[in-house]
Amino acid sequence: MEVKNPIIGQTNNAQGQGSMDRVRKKKFWNTQRIAIFAGGGALIAFIVYQLFFSDKRSKLNVEAEKLTVSAVSTGSFDEFIVVTGVVQPLKIIRLDAIVGGYVREKIVEGGSMVSQGQVLLKLENQNLKLNFLQSETEASRLVNDLQNTRQQLKVARFNIRRTLNELEFKIDQAKDTYERNQKLYKDKVIPESDFLKSKRDYELLVKQKEIETESQTYQEENAKMQIAQLEGTLLRTQRNVDLWRQTLDNLVVKAPVGGLLSSIDVEVGSNISQGQNIGQIDDLNGFKMRVAIDEHYVSRIFVGLGGSFEFNGKDHPLTITRIYPEVKNGRFEVDMSFPKGTPEGIKRGQSTPIRLELGKAEKALLLPVGGFFSDTGGNWVYVLDNSGKRAIKRNITLGRKNPEYYEVLEGLQAGEKVITSSYANFGDKEVLELK
After folding, report:
1. For the segment 301-319, what is each residue's pLDDT rounded down to a tens digit?
2. Does domain 126-249 have CATH number 1.10.10.920?
3. How many whole angstroms separate alpha carbon 205 and alpha carbon 15?
């Protein structure tokens, strides 16, 4: 009987089986490990790229169709501004009321041709009439006073002459008595008392004549002075009367010159104040341009500066002849004349754009005007790269400006393309991706 050892039996069995099936050696770079290492390497490479090599600038996708792209070019920079001019008569005569009153009659309407001296309005002012009558009354009173004073002087002269004549007669009588008594007294025919009395009577009359003569001279001088004063007062009063008469004449408003009564802003029954403007007359013998200019250019505008405008298909030159320095609402005005004559067919009130030259043309790098300037102040722009699919923010420096171009001083080159439309929707993005 055979006894089997279980352990030995198992060992022999395993060896017998191992002889039949060999154990395969496993590979280290299997598919799973390759995939893990490849993914890890790619992740590390992405992280390194993002940290050191990627474009970290802020970006924004925009639609290219909604943008305006302009090319930077080299050309002639004409420094000019475009302003608006209004055709006005060469001379405008304002009609201001010399006196006030209410309109009694309106004879001519606005838009009519008038001749010099033609009556336009008739005014009424009762106070002026009353003042005129009072002045006339005062003048009449002074005339009467002057006449009375002259009459009184004549009467006084007659009275003084009569008095002097009487005194001379009495003096002659007293002199005869005095001389006769003097002889009689020497002959001791009459007493001394009679002689002395006749002497005193004679001397008294002589003294009285001297006093009357002085009185006559004084009264004569006083009367002449009164007459001179009255004559001066009367002259001034008569002048006042004349002035009041002229004032009354001004109640009839007449055309100071001939021309077109372009406006007369009053109606019958309306009240007009002294000095109030009631209309104007245009002298149609010539025209000028009245131009409003932004106050920014006030230091660059001077008499003689030229400009031009287009009318009936032709360019016509203009020259500044007068500058009005007063600034209203940020603008000041100038007058411009036509050095080569007024264009035929031009009419008062027409407005037209005028090209006002501020300097001579110079060669420069030019960037077309656009809405970008209001968003950047001209300090930076978006410049397209060579692909035309991306626009990158770039700092620039701009110089002068005209209605068409900016003068580029730094930051751009001829041929580069710039987005010149508004940047209002781009925020502070540094790169624009065009799609």
Report:
1. 999 999 999 998 899 999 9
2. no
3. 204
